[in-house]
Design brief:
The complex is a heterodimer of chains A (126) and B (483). With 126 residues, chain A is of the alpha+beta class. Chain A is built from three helices and nine strands. Chain B has 483 residues and is an alpha/beta fold. The interface between A and B is small, with 6 and 6 residues.
Chain lengths: 126, 483
């Protein structure tokens, strides 16, 4: 089961909304598919992300993938711990493996994202 | 690894799967006008006649010249060991299979190249080679833009013109700006990067600089204040790229010692003959902080499950097979044989040998300076150099031509490389290495003195010394105008 309090993208990012801010990471499905994650490249705080545009890179022993912003917004914090311990993305993707916190620019964009059930259906289809 | 080419049957099945009849149909999207036109080749010739014709053509090459030409490509003694090992057929492809660790020999050769260059450059990370020094410098410039997310790069005019043009080509069509830092026009620092101008360029706060590129030694053979250039760059949040000539590192401080973020250079002096048109070898290295920005393959050494030494593809995260259109660069396989030559050369001469090569070149160059000055061609600049320097020669192009008839390749006519720099109008860039002999220096000096005195006695303008003085005035005046 994926956490039901989150929203999801087709590109396997999750977003947790808290007031006008939101935390973004990648799903357990994505982390498992990538394998052991060895490097995460994140944007600096203050950078403005655009919905669906690449904002970073996650690199595993077998692939390098872009991270796509679920919604537009300004980066207010990034998970510095991933610089030295990228493996927490594998071990705790919905918790300690979070990537960036953003100030959501347009809450209406959240409605375009998948809920837990829709995301489960997507990953079940493979 | 054995290589199995496609059979006609393979091709037919692939075409069938694609639903097309001929390979040409794959190119249908390319307009006819843009396709390579058919090669118009002469009719075949009997092999004996062809060999004779090629020999006649080869006979027109000037061999046995006393050469003082450097300007980015340098003559050195190459131990015969280098070519002998390169002859082994195992090296003739650098391609590795999808699981590159199957090709342990290829990986080991890359690992050794990267390790040797890492030591020579005093940098953390070395990429597995690029086309040439100019391409490596351009990759370095792009790295600074990616790492800083800035779009403006400053390159000293002391960096070889061909390198500057290559960087400009890489930047063409994009958002990136390349600006040139002038050289000091006169005084004791003449010919080196103008630090005050660099400071002004860096101070434009609305246009932050990604990287600053300078060469050591520079295009004119002079030693640059690399430490100071690097500090100015760093002070403005820019990365510092050092373009180096690797043999010089036998005696000069390596880029890592003066805080360069990226080192780039031409590896040809390391055991590769100065072939016209190449192949040559691009060197590119960086600090650990930029490891994800460096294009190409990084190979490491580890132990396998049985504890045996093994070589692995440690990082190629930015290559095309991984990153597609977001790849940082083109491939490293092209120059692998040249990288191997450099590794064999460095392993053959060793650190002490390399120091001797560099020091002997510098000693020969000092002899050359004295001999040319006595012949009437003094140095153009006052600053220190290693083994290459510019001398003032009135009507340099004509003198160069006449010296060629006398068996002397008198370096490079600087006005041909830098036609828009009036300070270099009457100058030759000359170089000596460990293969330069005292006899060659004596021949050059004698022939030059003869040419200069002939020009002085027949010229309407009077004695050669007056001509030199006039040229010096012109050059100084033009230099002031540039400020």
């Amino acid at each position: 089961m994926v956490p039901t309090d989150l929203r999801y993208t087709k590109d396997h990012e999750w977003i947790r909304v808290e007031g006008d801010e939101a935390t973004v990471g990648i799903t357990a499905y994505a982390a498992d598919s990538l394998g052991d994650i060895v490097f995460v490249e994140l944007p600096d705080a203050g950078r403005t992300l655009e919905q669906s545009a690449s904002f970073g890179v996650v690199e595993s022993v077998k692939a390098v993938s872009d991270l796509y912003a679920p919604v537009s917004g300004e980066v207010v914090a990034l998970n510095e711990e991933l610089g030295s311990r990228p493996e927490v993305v594998n071990s705790d993707p919905y918790g300690a493996g979070w990537m960036v916190r953003i100030r959501v620019a347009d809450p209406a964009q959240l409605d375009e994202l998948l809920d837990a059930a829709a995301y489960e259906t997507l990953t079940a289809e493979g | 690894m054995a290589y199995g080419p496609h059979t006609p049957d393979d091709r037919a099945r692939m075409l069938e799967a694609l639903g097309i009849a001929t390979v040409d149909e794959l190119f249908a999207d390319i307009p006819e006008a843009l396709r390579a036109s058919p090669l118009r080749l002469p009719d075949p010739e009997p092999e004996i006649e062809l060999a004779a014709r090629l020999e006649r053509l080869a006979g027109r090459n000037r061999v046995g010249l006393a050469s003082f030409l450097g300007a980015g490509v340098y003559r050195h003694f190459t131990p015969p060991l280098v070519d002998q090992i390169l002859l082994r057929g195992e090296w003739y492809t650098a391609y590795t299979p999808y699981q590159p660790e199957v090709s342990q020999g290829t990986l080991q050769s890359i690992y050794e190249f990267e390790s040797l260059l890492g030591e020579l450059l005093d940098m953390d990370v070395v990429s597995a080679s690029h086309y040439d020094g100019a391409a490596a410098a351009a990759e370095a410039a792009l790295m600074t833009c990616r790492a800083t997310r800035r779009e403006r790069v400053l390159v000293s005019r002391g960096v070889h013109r061909h390198y500057r043009e290559t960087v400009r080509t890489y930047f063409a069509g994009g958002e990136l700006d390349l600006e040139e830092i002038p050289l000091v026009a006169d005084g004791p620092d003449a010919g080196t990067t103008d630090l005050a101008a660099l400071e002004r360029l860096l101070a434009e706060s609305d246009r932050p600089v990604a990287g600053v590129i300078a060469a050591q030694p520079n295009l004119l053979g002079l030693l640059e204040p690399m430490q100071a250039i690097g500090e100015l760059a760093r002070g403005a949040g820019a990365l510092f790229v050092s373009v180096v000539e690797p043999v010089s590192l036998g005696v000069l401080a390596p880029p890592g010692a003066y805080g360069a973020d990226i080192a780039a250079g031409e590896g040809q002096p390391l055991g590769i003959a100065p072939q016209y048109g190449g192949p040559s070898l691009g060197l590119l290295a960086s600090t650990d902080a930029l490891v994800r920005q460096i294009p190409g393959r990084l190979v490491g050494m580890t132990a396998d499950l049985e504890g045996k030494r093994a070589f692995v593809m440690t990082l190629r995260a930015r290559e095309q097979d991984i990153r597609r259109e977001k790849a940082a660069s083109n491939i490293c396989t092209n120059q692998a044989l040249m990288a191997l030559a450099a590794s064999i050369y460095l392993a053959s001469v060793g650190p002490h040998g390399l120091r001797d090569v560099a020091a002997l070149g510098a000693a020969r160059a000092a002899e050359l300076e004295l001999a040319l000055a006595a012949a009437g061609a003094p140095r153009l600049h006052d600053g220190p150099y290693l083994n290459e320097f510019a001398v003032r020669v009135p009507d340099a192009a004509a003198v160069h031509r006449r010296l060629l008839d006398r068996g002397v390749l008198a370096g490079l006519v600087l006005s041909e490389l830098e036609p828009d720099d009036p300070g270099l109008a009457d100058a030759l860039l000359v170089c000596a290495t460990e293969v330069t002999t005292p006899e060659e220096i004596a021949l050059f000096a004698w022939a030059l003195a003869d040419e200069l005195s002939a020009a002085g006695s027949t010229g309407a303008a009077g004695p050669a010394t007056a001509g030199v003085a006039d040229d010096a005035t012109v050059a100084a005046g033009a230099g002031e105008g540039e400020q």
